[in-house]
Amino acid sequence: MTSAAEPGSLARRQRELASLYATVKSLTALGELDEVLQSIVHHAHDLIGTDFTYLSLVGADGRLSARASEGTISAEFLAATIPATVGLGGKVLASRSPHWVRDYATSTLIEHDPSFDRLVGPEKLVALLGVPLVIRGEAVGALFAADRSARSFQADEIALLNAFADHAAVALDNARLYEASRTALQQLQDAYRKIERAQAIHEALTGVVLAGGTPGDVAQLLADQLGGSVTLLDRIGAALAHRDAAADPCPGPPAAEPSAIEEARRSGRATTSSGAGGITRSVAAIQAGDSYLGALVWSRRADGAVPDGTDLRTLERATHILGLLILKEQAVAEASERLSGELLTELMLGGPGISPAQRARTRARNIDADRLDLVVVADTPAVSPADLARHLHDIARERAGLAGEHLGRATMILPSADDDRTVEEVHSRLRRSLGGPVLVAGERAAGHDWSRAFALAGRCGAVMRALGHTDLGATTRRYALYAMVFDADRAGDLERFLAGSIGPLVEYDRQRGTDLVDTLTAYYRHRANVAATARALHVHVNTLLKRLDRAGTLLGQGWRDGNDLELRLGLRLHELRASVAAGS
């Protein structure tokens, strides 16, 4: 069942993202540098919720100076300056990555500055988190969140403040450009127009996200604004979305050289290269902290307008928007997958039958629990059950079903009018997604007894694999001949059949530690060829003949007269049962 904390956690995450988007939009407007710095600190303080927040910038003298704060109590604290190479800020600037300490005063992981340490007591600063403000590859300052009691900072807090700092750096960059433009307006009018255009694009991108747009919508907006074509690639380089500008599309494939993508990842900047057919491509990596999420490729004709730094920065800023959007979609998808898996397990464990609460919860996901009549179990050695279940989630969403990992197996329950066809379609879809073989077994759930159907499908899948099938989708009806092996309700029938067909051999092996059953299994597998069987068992022919004579004594001397179908079938069922037991 879904825990009470999960909806609250998801709602908190959504509130944080909504607040982040709203904050980003408010910061995109150019303004006075001090006004922007104070706005950054104010929004960061509201977003993170620590006792106080402050922002420091590196000056021309190489010292780190506090420029804005929210929640501080000491006036001297805001006036503090320290060398940019010491303290927590020094670590943040040197590494261009987040760092934090649980107790600043006692921490031995940082180089302390005496003048700053004297201010720690009056300000009651204890726990401190710092994230870098990076503009075009240069760490120009740091944003700090502090608490007045010892604590550890969680990964989601660090990621949220780091993501905010990326956008704050954009706002800071815009503010600095605006301040510079005021001092030389006559010479920088063209640059100002480009910045204004970039700002308009950035606001439009933010608006797309706030309006519930998709990564494809962001790609389309960029293509329309920059011209040419824009392609969004996933982690492995596959195209997730490709959009052309209406006025000037770019012909040819949208592929980018792997080396260009790797360079963009390494440098954190957009890289530009010319390819075949007169096409120029710029690539920017989409990253969230240390996580690589994909890349954005802007393609255009080489004979078109030469892109300037502003266009490339627009491409880089768009990756920040896309990173947040991808993280949001991943969070929503993961929450949906967890809920789907929990509902599936709940139905499995709670059946047969459907409770009113279960019916209401499935209905809330637009799923009719009464129509969930087919259980599918998938298996492949190339992919873990958890990863395979994620592929089943995509199919379940399209077919109004539920998917998840149940008892270590990738499982799905879904409506089906034609079970054989449905299982074949699921197999075909999985094979395309995985690019390799996969085994899919299906069983109809009678009377909403999903647990029994799951057991039958899973054990039937083991039988299929034991029979040598590795790439197939089929229902258990196709393997009715072997039902005694995978149907627990028929275990008694199987025991009686084995006792009547090979019982004396099994008992003899059990009492004396011999292997007559395996010997006869190999004998029939090699078409009663004594020499071939002896080679397969790595024994002398005389040894094999003695074993066959012993089997004849136990079974009766007519066991090789040709009327041995029951014996052969017993040996095969015994072998399959052992394989299924080992697989389970």
Overview of the molecule:
With 584 residues, this protein is α+β, with helices and mostly antiparallel strands. It folds into four domains: 9-179, GAF domain (Beta-Lactamase); 212-330, Beta-Lactamase (2-Layer Sandwich); 350-486, Alpha-Beta Plaits (2-Layer Sandwich); 489-582, no CATH class. The chain contains 20 helices and 16 strands. It has helices at 5-27, 33-48, 75-78, 87-95, 114-123, 155-183, 189-210, 215-226, 258-267, 309-350, 356-364, 385-398, 419-434, 450-466, 483-486, 491-512, 516-525, 530-537, 541-555, 565-583, and strands at residues 52-58, 63-70, 81-83, 99-101, 127-135, 138-147, 229-233, 239-244, 271-274, 279-288, 291-301, 374-379, 402-406, 409-414, 439-444, 472-475. The strands form three sheets. Strands 3-2-1-6-5-4 form a six-stranded antiparallel beta sheet, sandwiched between helices. Strands 8-7-11-10-9 form a five-stranded antiparallel beta sheet. A five-stranded mixed beta sheet has the order 13-14-12-15-16. A hairpin with a 4-residue loop joins strand 9 and strand 10. It starts with a helix and ends with a helix. The relative contact order is 0.06. Mean pLDDT is 81; it is low at 1-5. Residues 245-276 are annotated as: Disordered. This is GAF domain-containing protein. Residues 178-205 form a coiled coil.
